[in-house]
């Protein structure tokens, strides 16, 4: 129940029915401290102490008078209660303690409560905050006693009555408060102004007065030669603040995200925020791989004895042909140390197989070991990505799994959500739409009631859920088996396509045939989520959030199964025995496969946006004559993002430029999806709040996606033999031996570095420490989640305790009124009997 609060002398407190945020005990404590200070200072300040004691007694008397005033029904109070009878009746239904005709004894007790005796008018607020500023100044700086000042300079507290303040006294209090604010630091002044329970205009007026007096004081104190320095510092500070505001305005996609949040709610917004997070991950990965792998090799290209094929345009889809012998793939990178003088001598340099260096490169200039750089760049970038993911997930856990009951958030959103600094018309419209959508979500959560079903209904729903899950699992299994047999068939026929005359006479057909498996997988990823949505429609979930989470689980099952079959195809068939299919560089082939899968996923996403959203909207409006638009499928689109990001993490070892392709894909996808959502989609018919959706997305990105990709990359570098004719790890048994060979060379050149060799053998070569590090990360996440869960329980207990204390207060007040009525009834009967006699 909301009521207006006016700081008026004649305003009855019981009529307001609200607790003021001011603590009047601070005022009395300030007076008591001044009295104690004067008593300690001795006889020289007896008159001042007597004056303060008199004022203290006046305040106590005024408090008693105010209690009597509250208990006595004045004429204005009677008239006001007659005029607001209907409002009181409505309020009585919400709270039984409001609107009752309490006795004078009960009113005295109610008016004596600490929450009902504070903040009666604006003068009291200014008085109290004047004393608070004085206390803050005493804490910030050591001040001499009051007796050391003249009477005119002492902090006067005359006329600080709570109900008898005149206009002149209030003006003098304001002036003294402004003086005290002027003497505070900037941070203390801002904190004090924010804490004052005044409206924004009065706070701004106090702030401007304090700044004006400060400027006049500084102009009198600062010499003319120093004013220029003061203005320069002030201008530099304002320029710095303007620069920070400009940087804040450069946040990526700030306005479109606000527009989506205002129109579609937090569910659709979480998709675009997750896309933005993936974009930052790929930018980081591209900068690391580009700076330490792609750029050095591009500046020192290796000599190629085979001519590069012509560009036909089909390479943009297949990634083969012209792109095969470029920095885009693993096979292009050399296995020797790059030196500055190697290219200056001219000619082709032979590679020394014993140490992996070129014998002609004997210059003493800086060198760059490409195999070592390739190995450590992949390892360090994966490790840093893991740390960022764990930190993001831990932070997201702390932000989402907190106690945020809808009733309390409604109050916060109602009174504290508007930003008064927003003055632009479009920004005001966006903010109002955003707040309205948040209100719809919160009100839907508040009004949601759990429906109690009978046993038959629960049994029927259980059977429907079981049937739906059986359909989803069976369809997923069938699709995974289809992908498995198709990849097996492609593997068996790959040798024929590579060695037959068809591949020589018609190479374009050979390259186009490589798109069959990516097209099949992308088609399954496009159509099967529609079957999942049909199963969810059959289940008829009451909560939209539950339906979203179930859909996420089913799509995750599909994506993990598909990626598992593909990883087996690449690492278990192609990489295990590449000579059977006549592959000279199987790493480049796997990189091309990952590029094709990533590109086909993007193309089919665009087709789904075109046919599933745009054309369906036109068909519904033109043919069906309905204004109903499709709802944005959060689960399917988010799992498509996770699927694409998993491909990017898998392919960074074989295709170092793949993060750049993923960045371009995400940028185009953001603008295409944003336009489609704004034009073709509608908000959910049942608004719902997704407080933990972002945490679920980050968790899925970390564990199934990044963890699976890291396991595959680690297995490739530690167990699979690299190609012998291409790449930086040629002629090595495993990619992992590049780091071991570098450590052995360091130990041979400098025996003092034998400790580094032993540390490498124990920490890097032994997989036990890798599992220990992964276990430590999991333990950190577990303990953080447990701490957050404990905090949630404590906050829940405290909220329950507050509610119980409120109920106890209502019960005690009601019992007090009942006892008083029981004692007053015999007295009334006795009085009536005496009158009759």
TrEMBL record:
Transmembrane segments annotated in the record for this chain: 268-295, 372-392, 467-492, 512-535, 556-575, 595-616, 693-718, 768-785
Q: Which GO terms describe its molecular function?
A: mechanosensitive monoatomic ion channel activity
Q: How does it sit in the membrane?
A: Multi-pass membrane protein
Q: Which domain of life is it from?
A: Eukaryota
Predominant location? membrane
Identify the InterPro entries for this entry: TMC, TMC_dom
Any Pfam family matching the protein: TMC
Q: Which residues form the TMC domain?
A: 585-691
Where does the record place the region Disordered? 61-92
Quote the cellular component terms of the Gene Ontology held in the record: plasma membrane
Recite the UniProt keywords alphabetically. Membrane, Transmembrane, Transmembrane helix
Does the keyword Membrane feature in the UniProt annotation?
yes
Q: Where in the cell is it found?
A: Membrane
Q: Which family does it belong to?
A: Belongs to the TMC family.
Provide the protein name. Answer: Transmembrane channel-like protein
Q: From which source organism is this entry?
A: Champsocephalus gunnari
Lineage at the top is: Eukaryota, Metazoa, Chordata, Craniata, Vertebrata
């Amino acid at each position: 129940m909301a009521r207006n609060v006016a700081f008026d002398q004649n305003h009855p407190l019981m009529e307001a029915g609200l607790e003021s945020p001011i603590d009047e005990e601070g005022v009395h404590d300030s007076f008591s401290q001044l009295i104690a200070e004067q008593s300690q200072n001795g006889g020289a300040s007896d008159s001042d102490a007597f004056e303060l004691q008199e004022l203290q007694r006046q305040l106590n008397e005024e408090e008693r008078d105010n209690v009597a005033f509250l208990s006595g029904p004045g004429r204005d109070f009677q008239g006001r209660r007659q005029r607001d009878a209907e409002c009181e009746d409505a309020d009585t239904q919400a709270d039984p303690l409001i609107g009752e005709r309490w006795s004078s004894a009960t009113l005295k007790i109610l008016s004596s409560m600490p929450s009902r005796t504070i903040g009666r008018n604006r003068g009291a607020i200014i008085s109290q905050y004047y004393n608070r500023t004085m206390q803050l100044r005493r804490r910030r700086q050591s001040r001499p006693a009051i007796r050391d000042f003249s009477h005119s300079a002492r902090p006067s507290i005359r006329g600080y009555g709570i109900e008898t303040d005149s206009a002149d006294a209030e003006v003098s209090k304001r002036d003294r408060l402004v003086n005290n604010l002027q003497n505070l630091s900037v941070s203390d002044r801002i904190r004090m102004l924010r804490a004052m329970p005044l409206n924004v205009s009065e706070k701004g007026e106090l702030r401007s007065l304090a700044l004006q007096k400060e400027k006049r004081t500084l102009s009198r104190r600062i010499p003319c030669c120093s004013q220029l320095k003061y203005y320069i510092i002030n201008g530099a500070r304002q320029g710095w603040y303007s620069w920070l505001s400009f940087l804040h305005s450069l946040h990526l996609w700030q306005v479109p995200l606000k527009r989506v949040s205002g129109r579609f709610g937090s569910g659709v917004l979480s998709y675009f925020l997750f896309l933005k997070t993936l974009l930052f991950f790929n930018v980081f990965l591209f900068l690391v791989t580009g700076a330490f792998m792609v750029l050095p090799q591009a500046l020192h290209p290796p000599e190629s004895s085979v001519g590069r094929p012509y560009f036909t345009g089909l390479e943009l889809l297949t990634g083969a042909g012209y792109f095969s012998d470029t920095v885009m793939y693993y096979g292009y990178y050399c296995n020797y140390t790059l030196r500055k003088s190697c290219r200056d001598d001219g000619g082709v340099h032979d590679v020394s197989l014993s140490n992996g260096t070129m014998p002609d490169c004997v210059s003493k200039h800086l060198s760059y070991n490409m195999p070592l750089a390739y190995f450590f760049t992949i390892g360090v970038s994966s490790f840093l990505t893991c740390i960022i993911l764990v930190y993001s997930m831990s932070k997201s856990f702390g932000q989402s799994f907190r106690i945020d009951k809808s009733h309390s958030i409604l109050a916060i959103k109602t009174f504290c959500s508007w930003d008064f600094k927003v003055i632009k018309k479009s920004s005001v419209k966006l903010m109002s739409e955003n707040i309205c959508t948040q209100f719809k979500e919160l009100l839907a959560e508040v009004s949601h009631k759990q429906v109690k079903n009978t046993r038959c209904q629960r049994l029927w729903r259980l059977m429907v859920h079981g049937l739906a899950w059986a359909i989803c699992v069976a369809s997923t299994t069938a699709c995974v088996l289809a992908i498995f047999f198709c990849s097996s068939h492609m593997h068996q026929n790959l040798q024929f396509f590579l060695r037959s005359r068809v591949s020589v006479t018609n190479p374009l057909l050979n390259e186009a045939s490589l798109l069959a498996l990516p097209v099949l997988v992308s088609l399954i990823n496009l159509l099967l989520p529609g079957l999942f949505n049909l199963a969810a429609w059959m289940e008829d979930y009451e909560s939209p959030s539950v339906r979203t989470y179930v859909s996420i689980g089913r799509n995750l099952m599909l994506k993990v199964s598909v990626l598992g079959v593909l990883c087996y195809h690449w690492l278990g068939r192609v990489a295990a025995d590449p000579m059977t299919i006549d592959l000279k560089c199987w790493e480049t082939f796997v990189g091309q496969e990952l590029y094709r899968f990533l590109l086909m996923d993007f193309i089919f996403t665009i087709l789904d946006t075109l046919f599933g959203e745009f054309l369906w909207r036109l068909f519904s409006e033109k043919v069906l004559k309905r204004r109903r638009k499709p709802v944005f499928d959060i689960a399917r689109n988010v799992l498509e993002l996770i699927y694409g990001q998993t491909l990017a993490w898998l392919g960074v070892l074989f295709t170092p430029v793949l993060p750049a392709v993923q960045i371009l894909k995400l940028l185009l996808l953001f603008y295409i999806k944003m336009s489609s959502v704004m034009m073709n989609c509608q908000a959910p018919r049942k608004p719902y709040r997704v407080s933990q959706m972002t945490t679920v997305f980050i968790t899925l990105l970390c564990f199934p996606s990044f963890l699976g990709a890291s396991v595959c990359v680690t297995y490739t570098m530690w167990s699979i033999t690299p190609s012998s004719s291409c790449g930086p790890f040629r002629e090595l048994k495993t990619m992992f031996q590049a780091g071991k060979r570098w450590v052995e060379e360091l130990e041979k050149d400098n025996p003092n570095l034998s400790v580094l060799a032993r540390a490498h053998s124990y920490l890097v070569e032994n997989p036990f420490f890798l599992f220990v590090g992964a276990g430590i990360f999991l333990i950190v996440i577990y303990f953080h989640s447990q701490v957050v869960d404990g905090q949630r329980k404590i906050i829940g207990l405290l909220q329950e305790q507050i509610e119980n204390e409120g109920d106890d207060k209502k019960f005690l007040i009601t019992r007090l009124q009942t006892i008083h009525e029981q004692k007053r009834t015999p007295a009334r009967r006795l009085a009536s009997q005496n009158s009759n006699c």
